[in-house]
Amino acid sequence: MDTNVLVFSFGLLLLALFGWYFFTDSDRIKRILGSALAVLLVAFCLQVVNPPNDVRDSDGHLIKAGKIQRGLDLKGGTSFLIRLIAEPNELGEVREITPTMVDQAIEVIRKRVDALGTSEPVLAPSGSDRILVQIPGLDPQKLNETREQLKKVAKLEFRLVHPMSEMLVPAIEAGTEVPPIGYSIQPMDTERGGKPVTTKLLLKNKPDLLGARVTSAGAYFDVQGWGVGLEFDAQGADEFQRLTKEVAQQRSAMAIVLDGKIQSAPGVDHDKYAEGIFGGRAQISGGNMTEKEARNLASALENPLAVPVAIEEERSASASLGDDAINSGIKAGLVGVALTFICVLLYYRFAGLIANLALAINVILLFGAMAAFNVVLTLPGIAGIILTVGMAVDANVLIYERLREELATGKSLKASLSAAFDKAFSAIFDSNITTLITAVILFWQATGPIKGFAVTLTMGIIASMFAALVVTRNLFDWAVTLGWIKTISMTNLINATNFDFISKRKPAITFSILVMIGSLALFAIRGEKNFGVDFKGGDRLVLEAGGPRPTDNEVRMALAQIKITDTVVQTEKSAAKEFLTVRSPADTSTAISEHLQKTFPDAKFTEQGVEKVGKLVGDELARKSLIALGLGIIGIFIYVTIQFEMSFAIGAIVALLHDVIITIGIFALAGREMSLIIVGAILTIAGYSINDTIVVFDRIREGIKAGRSGSVAEIMNRSINETLSRTILTGGTTLLTTLGLYLLGGPVLNDFAFTIIIGVLVGTYSSIYIAAPIVLWWSGKGGHKLRTEIKKSELPKPATA
């Protein structure tokens, strides 16, 4: 049976089981269905992810390709972001950049890249006028050649083929004839019967018609087979008529030449077009042309690269740097995950064992989804996975802390478990959905590696919800039903508290306002120093020394000799290696690299990575980052208003902005530079901040709806105290996983982890001291009463006629 049919049938089966699971009221059927879903999904994911990495024989030959695709930052290679520029061509005409032109330009560039002998290049459109070119394993020696080939403007020409070409070519090659003046022998590569064939033509050196005169070209299929139709402008129509007349009368051919290579050499029917082809329209057909040949020829005739081309961004990483990055990332991830598993197990004991099993299934589902949807794993993607593991524990913490409360009331274990899952559901659902909003918006607005981060974070959120709400619940149900557990004991390091947090709201908010003002002022004072090459453009060069390495100051002095100023020179360490990094103005990395290798020969410097980012790309990144944050805030505001009440939405947004602004301020205070991955980290903090805040809000809403005694401020205070243990435990586990990234993840992940650590600490503070007080303050504005508003939202809506 077809694999696609099997996958489709399997998907329908899963969908049916999910529907049955959520609609059945039978506990026994829920256990069976939940277990079936978990087993089927895990088996499917293990199948699609096997093998995760490439399998090679002892000679290094590929036996089976790995299912987890690695990005260039993990396997080495170079990526270029190319922009087609709408500027006047050689005839002074401006061609509008269209999607069709971009698609055709991709094919022209693909041929150029293939001609360089590279393997498995990836080319894709990026936006309306850009093309992303990724070349794995590009030899550094070929970097300049590749760069020039990509920037080269394509030249399309029509040239006359000598009428005696077929007879003269062999004679000229044999030395019995000399080429006629103005002609030379050129090869034409074609296919016949699926095999490559090379034909040599005696071609006129000077073009008879320029390709810029072609206004459109396209492949077509009719009763005679595949062909290509083309049109010329008014002047081109006249020139084409004269050329085709000459070809028809000489019974010769005209060669279509792109980038100096003959694409085709059609003739002209003498009986039909003895005076040439009028009207500026023509068809090239016959000769058993295949669809591929027709489309390639049409693409060549459109000449999409006749417009100027600019390389706006270039990023390269050696295989050595890629291996080091993935080793650092994996080591950091394993350490963080191991610490999390141990802490959960020690704190929650048997319940912790179940949580760890659910967490393991969560990771399997995440990698299976990545393999199934061909998600490319990047360094930021590894960060997303590790962060997902840390945040996934939160759902189990919410359930277990609820379970502790239910057991304390004297309920049976089974009744306590049922109540714990039911009461924790709204907090788990709302907090994950708000985080999902930021992840989806990040995916929508982001490009490159950050898009991979957003995908892994999104998949991780979905997997963690399934693991917590289905897997964990079913494991507990089976354990209780089969009599494996009669009671549950858990460590309780954080006993019930009764701190008066709300009474401290004025000094806390005043302190936060001062810190926020200081953060914004510090960020403004540092100015451009806040931003790396991703934002302000420029070059970033990564060198590795094979011998004694000069100090950073000696490198600065050496660069001063060639008058390259405004550079940042620093040493960056990964788990196993040490690199010299130089950030400099645009188009200076090559000169820097050559000068340092010449000045410090004993250091034996080798280039391990180069990044070249244009100012336009940096400006666009800054704009998109602000748009992503703005859209995230709007999305969260709408969702929280619908699910809770507007006062809660105001409190959530204020807490979010508080966390983001202070995190950026501390990041600036530490002298670090904003980069592409830090944008992802800041938006993740926004998601984490909302996640943390929603849990507290959920408990406040629950207390008000239940009609608890006391004022709203007192209910808020009790709610913050009731969720305090969860807030500290979730923050602690997230910090544990992130700590591995900070200590062992290398320079890129170190910045990411530093941002997350600060964000988690600030977010924990704002959940306790900022969010609820803002809700209380806003709910009193304009005579609103929070208790009344929440009660009103629970009333059934009046029927409409």
What does this structure look like?
The chain is of the alpha+beta class. The protein is 58% helix and 16% strand. The chain has 25 helices and 21 strands. Strands 5-6-4-16-21-18-20-19 form an 8-stranded antiparallel β-sheet. Helix 4 (99-115) crosses helix 8 and helix 20 packs across helix 21 (712-722). The longest helix has 33 residues, at 413-445. It is elongated, with a radius of gyration of 33 Å. The model is unreliable at 795-801 (pLDDT under 50).
Measured between the Cα atoms of the first and last residue, the distance is 54 Å
Query: What is the CA-atom radius of gyration, in angstroms?
Result: 33 Å
Tell me roughly what share of residues is in helical segments: 55-70%
So how many helices?
A: 25
Strand fraction: 15-25%
Number of strands: 21
Form type: elongated
Mean pLDDT: 81
Sheet having the most strands: 8 strands, antiparallel
Order of strands, widest sheet: 5-6-4-16-21-18-20-19
Low-pLDDT segments, ≥5 res: 795-801
Query: Given the helix and strand composition, which structural class is it?
Result: alpha+beta
Give structural attributes.
8-stranded antiparallel beta sheet, alpha+beta, 801 residues, 25 helices, 4-stranded antiparallel beta sheet, 21 strands, elongated
List the helices and strands and how they pair.
Blueprint: H1 3-23, H2 27-49, E1 55-56, E2 62-64, E3 69-70, H3 72-75, E4 77-84, H4 99-115, E5 122-126, E6 130-136, H5 143-151, E7 156-161, H6 165-174, E8 183-192, E9 195-204, E10 209-210, E11 214-222, E12 225-232, H7 234-250, E13 253-258, E14 261-264, E15 281-284, H8 291-302, E16 309-317, H9 319-348, H10 350-372, E17 376-377, H11 379-408, H12 413-445, H13 449-481, H14 505-526, H15 533-536, E18 538-545, H16 552-561, E19 568-573, E20 578-584, H17 589-599, E21 605-613, H18 615-643, H19 646-669, H20 676-705, H21 712-722, H22 724-744, H23 746-769, H24 771-779, H25 786-794
Parallel strand pairs: 3-17
Antiparallel strand pairs: 1-2, 4-6, 4-16, 5-6, 7-10, 7-13, 8-9, 11-12, 12-15, 13-14, 16-21, 18-20, 18-21, 19-20
Helix pairs in contact: 1-2, 2-10, 2-13, 4-8, 9-10, 9-11, 9-22, 10-11, 10-13, 11-12, 11-13, 11-22, 12-13, 12-18, 12-20, 13-20, 14-19, 18-19, 18-20, 19-20, 19-23, 19-24, 20-21, 20-23, 22-23
